[in-house]
Amino acid sequence: MVASVLIIGFSFVLLVYWFRYSCLLLLRSSVPAESAILDQRFGFARVKEQLQPGANLDALHQMLAHDYRLLTYLLEHAAGLNLDSLEDRLLVVDYRVMQWYYRLTKTAAPEQARHALSEMAAVVGVLVQHMSEQAGVQAQA
Length: 141
Hints:
The protein is mainly α. The protein contains five helices and no strands.
């Protein structure tokens, strides 16, 4: 009984470690989001610029939430656009986990909340870039 609980616990810890490592590796290995189309409809680049100590984190979180809603709307309603690859799905789950982590840490640990917002902005940037590549649009700086 105890051995089964230890094996399950250890497996869960390894799964969480694999997930975090995979997401961070995907974000590091992607081309910087600034080379993607920086449309006025997306504010993830401004969020990255404004993530300074003392910044209004709730306003930045709302800007990222707007970007994510816009991205999902475009993916649901545009023909030929989807996030079917495992990497994209992992990034979507990572965005949701970081959103949850931000809500837990925004009052008690603002530095960790700022880190969560930074990762959320990076995820949105990568997903926008993948979407623009699918649409066949040339990247502009």
